[in-house]
Amino acid sequence: MTRREFVATSALAAGGLATACAHPAAGLLSGGELPLYVGTYTEGKRSQGVHLLRMRRDDGTLRVAGAYDVGPEPSFLALHPNGRVLYAVNEVADFGGRASGAVGAFAIDRSGALTALGPRRATGGGAPCYASVDRTGRALLVANYTGGNVASFPIDEQGAIGDATAVRQHEGTGPRADRQERPHAHCILPDPTNRWAIAADLGADRLMVYRLDERTASLSPSSAVEARRGAGPRHLAWSADGRTLYVANELDLTLGVWRWDATAGTLARVETVVLLPKAAPEGTTAADLHLSPSGRHLYASVRGVDQLVVFSLEPETGQASRVQQIASSGRWPRNFAIDPSGRFLLAANQRSNSIAVFKIDARTGLLEPTGHTIEVPAPVCVRFA
Fold it and tell me: Are strands 114-116 and 367-375 parallel, antiparallel or unpaired?
């Protein structure tokens, strides 16, 4: 069952603490391993939707260390800047009798186990599919896919979230009647200055610029730019210097490159680069986008053809040149993550229920399969803690 199908029928009961079905192994925080969390689609079959994994620093191999019940469909995760709180959306259409999804905050203890910090909060729109935390740790930002809006939440000193301080509704449609019949907010990220937040709307073919007030965790509309018609902006990534915004356009399989003016809070188009050199089969869609820790390379995932695409970045202009396409070692690479050292990329292949590990060449940025995969049911989001 796809997200578009199950979200219409999913429901979420409010409240409750996160419960573990498996306790992390002893020595979880040893120096030889890195912890990471995986958000999944539970699809009404499982209660434990967030999985705790450990990655060996030397060879990238993974092991499962725990799994936690944080409510149904915990598809997307975000971490507090202090690394001690995990935020998980519940990508459902109904929460507490409202046409809304939910989001919750969960404290991370020394073993990696999760405990709820207060009640889950309504997101103000159905199917929340993305969350991010501002750089001060005071504001949580959420994009609601079926709601076609974005919301912001205050974060207290313990990392708990309050009710939404702002819910901003998007407007507009695109030429694809099957996917762009109304707004579909798909991502929201603070800019590097933390004065602004940018939202990508797949349905409206627009990038929305909001003024972000970190003190009150509020969003105020500022400006918007039009993407290519039918592009379907999905995920965003900032360049290392904060002057360029990269956009993975889901529907037309392109990478949008935009120049960012942090003083004025405006975007200007630089170029649009095709993700694949050849025409792709129907149903192929772009998904995730991440910058390497070095800032020299950009990575994208493409579903349907099930590939990872690597770009080399020109430091002065931010322009991108494709240097590699490689199979994702699974089906439907919905999301991926690069470890903090920049040595390994972990591809979450949703439809093959697996996460595949790739080694990254430090000089060229090219990917090489390690041959290691681990089974995780319907992985949707990977976050290193």
Answer: unpaired
